[in-house]
Amino acid sequence: MTGADSLVRTLVKGGVTVSFANPGTSEMHYVAALDRVQGMRCVLGLFEGVCSGAADGYYRMTDMPAATLLHLGPGLANACANLHNAKKAGSGIVNIVGEHATYHIKFDTPLTADIEGIAKPFSHWVKTSPTSKTVAKDGAHAIQAARTSPGQIATLILPADTAWGAAHEVAETPPPPAPQKPSADAVTAAAKALTNGEPGMLLLGGRALRARALELAGKIATKTGCKVQGAGANARLQRGAGRVQISRVPFVVEQATAVLKGTRQMVLCGARQPAAFFAYPGKPSILTPEDCVVTKLADVEDDCEAALEALAAELGALDAPAAGIAAAKRPDKPSGKITLDGLGMALGATMPENAIVVDESVTTGRGFFPFSAGAPPHDWLNNMGGSIGFGAPVAVGAAVACPDRKVISMIGDGSAMYTVQALWTMARENLDVCVIIFSNRSYQILYSQLADVGAPNPGPRAIDMLTLDRPALDFVKLAKGMGVEGARVEDLDGLTKQMQWAMGQKGPYLIEVMM
Amino acid sequence: MTGADSLVRTLVKGGVTVSFANPGTSEMHYVAALDRVQGMRCVLGLFEGVCSGAADGYYRMTDMPAATLLHLGPGLANACANLHNAKKAGSGIVNIVGEHATYHIKFDTPLTADIEGIAKPFSHWVKTSPTSKTVAKDGAHAIQAARTSPGQIATLILPADTAWGAAHEVAETPPPPAPQKPSADAVTAAAKALTNGEPGMLLLGGRALRARALELAGKIATKTGCKVQGAGANARLQRGAGRVQISRVPFVVEQATAVLKGTRQMVLCGARQPAAFFAYPGKPSILTPEDCVVTKLADVEDDCEAALEALAAELGALDAPAAGIAAAKRPDKPSGKITLDGLGMALGATMPENAIVVDESVTTGRGFFPFSAGAPPHDWLNNMGGSIGFGAPVAVGAAVACPDRKVISMIGDGSAMYTVQALWTMARENLDVCVIIFSNRSYQILYSQLADVGAPNPGPRAIDMLTLDRPALDFVKLAKGMGVEGARVEDLDGLTKQMQWAMGQKGPYLIEVMM
């Protein structure tokens, strides 16, 4: 048994059964071990950001980490933008990063780099395994770290000789520490805050947005009259008919402060006090009103559902009906010219039960939520780290995790280009993903941001940095070049027809919406 | 004048007149300043690795740094793989990385990350500018650092309020330290080594591979009988008819040791003692014979041409004719089925004078050199850091640097996918680049590497990690999707015809060679 064998067996035994991989020479023994060990599914990505984003999506849908397989420092670096998003989302990932043989590093050959230094800003746990005999145990610790609530990035660096050297044991993964239950004091404080007669808001994030936790929040709302609000972006929000309906804190500062206006008591459960995504001259960073008192019930890594259950019990709300449950109701199929509302309606009208929506629609999709509030139950995944290039890779991982569910990945054209290689993996694995590209042929968000930072009326050189229209991208051709069929639509009738067809079939399909 | 204005003006004044940019919100004041300040050319990339690779190519062809413009930590992370390649190549780059406003960082919003931590493994110089008043001076120091021989990666982090706040001065860039001249001792030692009667080799790298330095090396060879050899990979090698012909140390360990066999005296000028790219079980890391004495004449950051001039003078070789000058001779145009030699012949037969060859042909191109040795004078650029995804971005930068020269970018299909977005920038800027993709539909190198590490006969899961044939990539469609015309060729007649046509026109064009 090689060190690589011992590691792959340890991973499989520890419940890590999918590898999103982009290997190179230094990982060849590990690749050879994948042949010998049963139980690991390997999914190849043509760019490492596809692998890390896929591992993020996989974790969000399974609450179990996948592994990545990355080629030394630069391979890890290419994965880092989506590792950043995963870290902010509280997703657990076990990164396996190849390294030169221990004795070879000192020769500083082309691929030599400070791999631990590269990993640290994006990881909770980093270790270079020193020998083939330690690899299994280090792998087990990596799994444990990755599974630590709500999920962490664990990076295990594997020098080639520790992969090809001899090993004897397969390691047992120690159980991760249980998420913290709410303290009685925190529950009492939250109950007081929501019953002191002032306008209150229960702000939810993380696993407080799963269906059962939402139901508890709805009961608390019934009992106390508080608003229930979701954070601006969320790793996984369960919504649709029969579930407590949640809106998110808007991205635009003025809209966010309007939503939060008048709130005097805010109770946080899995969410942080709302802050502006970016700073803008003369605008606040913190979005809650100045006289709002903020009380923390549970952090994102705590047991948020237990916290809500305890709070509901404290309030005597466990048997109350939940407020804000969405009635089953789809919008009519839209027709005519493309409008933002029309896009939201097309989604609400066609999405199947149990769909997984991966939302990187940026400016286009900000108003989509109401149109699918009464659609059949589904999950909605946001970008938590703000690094674009998130949508297609996360869809890959969600589809690998949930082969029986339709994944709908909505992506702005600018965002889609960062990790466009994900389409190939969708074709290779025949993943059931409908990719919808909103082609406004610009980094549309930057036009408004340019004004927001106090620099309106951009001149030609600035405009040139914001536009993607010269040359025009053709996403249908790009998709076909990677083995994914697709079509372009110019109006809502075309979009609805295409979406209906796509929802009724299995396998990847791309729809480019010309805005 | 804002801090951003002061920085852009400082860059232009300091000779940094091209920005390879992928901006976001936090960089909007900088983008606005680009409108107001004359003299900066902005080139947009749809992925940050295109920007950093382009800056690498630009430096290699101009010996002057370009700037990048990157969006916070994740934007920088996406640039890092090609920054790694640039760092190993000794290319100077001024990275401008946006950051949240200083007072906003503590709120740990989605895009907050440890930007300095991300930059450090890939940079020689890193600084976060603290105020709008310091930005200009920090920018000047970044230019100075980037211009320090042979070229360094300088990363200036620009919090948004330091860009939008007031500034008063444009800073003067201090001159970079002059590269070190050779010491008399080093020259004497090198002269002794090459004249002691033992078989000698002069191993060249860095700027020792420019035409004048090569001529000096050829004179030294005439006088001493030593071999003149190039390092395995080189930032920029000047070659072709009338220049001293250079071969490179092969990638494959057995081939490399065969080339170096019998060498008893090795003199290094801008190169390091040859080491294997990767470690392999039972194979050496150091490739020179055990009894070979290694003498360092000049490091890559030293003045290599002056070192060779001093050595030639010491040897009385300045007036000697240079050995090994390549005669003008092109191969015949090849025809028939695709062969590796035939590909090299097609290149040698069609490349125009002053071509810039960006070589990321990986396994396919290892034997190309002899067929273009007598072609008209040209530059040949290798990947120095081993991170694939180098070829198309570096071609972008070389073409921006040298608008009157044809750039030929030869890329393996696996490599091309990492930074395929570069094609769009080629179309947008109408860059004179002929991209040649070698489609063997696999990570071909990994097949041999799998055997080399002692794991032959891969099984289905391993093979699945090495093959790109399911689905087949179609690079002509991919190129068209990004506005670049192209064609697929199935034999050498088709290739030669396409290449001749491509060499005779201006603007980007892609040829996919079906292997």
From TrEMBL, chains A, B:
The keyword Cell inner membrane does not apply. Residues 376-513 form the Thiamine pyrophosphate enzyme TPP-binding domain. Keywords: Thiamine pyrophosphate. It comes from the Bacteria. One of its GO terms (biological process) is small molecule metabolic process. Residues 1-106 form the Thiamine pyrophosphate enzyme N-terminal TPP-binding domain. Pfam families: TPP_enzyme_C, TPP_enzyme_N. One of its GO terms (molecular function) is magnesium ion binding. The keyword Lipid biosynthesis does not apply. InterPro entries: DHS-like_NAD/FAD-binding_dom (IPR029035), THDP-binding (IPR029061), Thiamin_PyroP_enz_TPP-bd_dom (IPR012001), TPP-bd_CS (IPR000399), TPP_enz (IPR045229), TPP_enzyme_TPP-bd (IPR011766). Belongs to the TPP enzyme family. NCBIfam families: PRK07586.1. This is Acetolactate synthase large subunit.
